[in-house]
Design goal:
The structure is a homodimer of 227-residue chains. Chain A is elongated and about 65 Å long. The first copy, chain A, is an all-alpha fold and 227 residues long. Chain A has two domains: 50 residues, Arc Repressor Mutant, subunit A (Orthogonal Bundle), CATH 1.10.10.60; 159 residues, Tetracycline Repressor, domain 2 (Orthogonal Bundle). Chain A has nine helices and no strands. Chain A is 64% helix and 0% strand. The interface between A and B is large, with 57 and 57 residues. Chain A binds a DNA duplex (30 and 30 nucleotides) through loops.
Chain lengths: 227, 227
DNA sequence: AAATTGCAAGAGCAGTGCTCTCGTTGTGGG
DNA sequence: CCCACAACGAGAGCACTGCTCTTGCAATTT
């Protein structure tokens, strides 16, 4: 009974923190304000989070899992064999989550907190999105084994990539494609970072449409879609 | 005489601030510590910067210009007509600057400061890099007018892009190429953000080599280089 | 019923950004 | 030349922050 009360209290703290982050920003989040909102004294919070960064770490973990779950669900709604539709739906789910939760996006994809050593649990949660994208690519190759490599590279990927880790995320995908796969992943989040952080001001007027174009362009590059 | 002393003092403040940002982080930058380093009382700094954010804005402006100048110089060293070499040199210059000044990179490409309205002067400085990349693409099209558009799109770019602004940055480039051009720009910085903010842990082992591969991939996409 | 453990309260410390007032000192116009 | 003005640094102070420590109460365990 006491343990569940504790878990509930932790959820309350995180919820209030999320609300305050949404109102102000992450830098404007203060434990004292959370405690004031909760009608409790600030030192009480330290029973649940030893430090402000610990609270932020918990929020980061939740954010990664929330995003990951959103993308997994979006992907699951599409016919398994339609790789392009899955790719598009997943990418759009990422953007939808990011634009709906810009501050939490900033929390996980923005400037890291000074002591930027990510706990392993965080890395695990962070990979959920990558796993979805990897699975789409992987299964598309299983369906259509005829896709010829446009530019069969030298294959020295082991020198600069963690080939084993990547093979686990997208089994069956030729290592010559890893660069393009990572580039697509990077481009998706690079786009959102640029959009949300204001770098597109003066160039992109309708980020929604532009995003779809970029997603299509990347789909071509990944050969999930014909040019 | 007094005006120059004032300018000098401003430079000292910014230099100390840059050093402290490099040591700790931008969030760990405090005016009081700057003042202590300078052997002056903290309120004295307010004669030069009305607010902490004003100081940061000044540092952001300097960072954009420093990066822009680095890239301009790198591009200038390469034979004008060799578009691919210029592209690669410029991209490498961006990465070199970013890895040499990670905290200043975070300052300009990381999570924006709460009051995230960028002054116009900042936007101007920020576009210096884009102008270099645009010029490379633009002049490459002037040299080789035979490049056929791989996928002549519907041409409705006006609906989601600031076509006029983009045309000013890369004159002579067909608007059907704008998406790919913006994508390349986005990918470069997306890569650096992922690299510097730790998202590549567990996948990319040698970011240096991977970056070159990505730059080549983008060069192909921009048709600055044959596949 | 007694002992232990979890918890909130409150005071307090060192630090922050920022404001205000007060002498001092350099500078330009009459 | 000298004086009024403006710029400047010093210092005190306000409201805020994260975090620590002690105290007393309440719930759980033994």
């Amino acid at each position: 009974m006491r343990a569940s009360a504790r878990r509930a209290q932790i959820e309350v703290i995180k919820d209030v923190a999320r609300r305050l982050i949404a109102e102000k920003s992450v830098s404007g989040l203060s434990l004292r304000e959370i405690s004031r909102e909760m009608g409790v004294v600030s030192s009480a919070l330290y029973r649940y989070f030893a430090t402000r960064d610990d609270l932020l770490t918990a929020l980061i973990l939740d954010a990664y899992n929330d995003l990951g779950q959103s993308v997994e669900r979006a992907d699951a709604k599409v016919a398994r064999e339609d790789a392009y539709a899955r790719w598009r739906a997943s990418a759009r789910a990422i953007r939808r989550w990011a634009t709906n939760n810009p501050h939490e996006y900033a929390l996980i994809y923005g400037t890291p907190i000074p002591g930027y050593t990510a706990p392993t649990a965080t890395i695990d949660a962070a990979s959920r999105v990558a796993r979805v994208l990897g699975a789409i690519l992987s299964e598309s190759r299983r369906v259509d084994t005829s896709v010829a490599l446009a530019r069969p590279a030298a294959g020295g990927e082991r020198r600069f990539l963690d080939v084993d880790g990547l093979a686990a995320i997208m089994p069956g995908v030729a290592s010559e494609e890893y660069v393009r796969a990572l580039l697509a992943w990077t481009a998706i989040f690079g786009f959102l970072t640029f959009e949300l952080f204001g770098q597109y001001v003066g160039t992109v007027k309708n980020a929604n449409m532009m995003f779809d174009r970029v997603v299509d362009e990347l789909a071509v590059s990944l050969r999930l879609r014909a040019a």
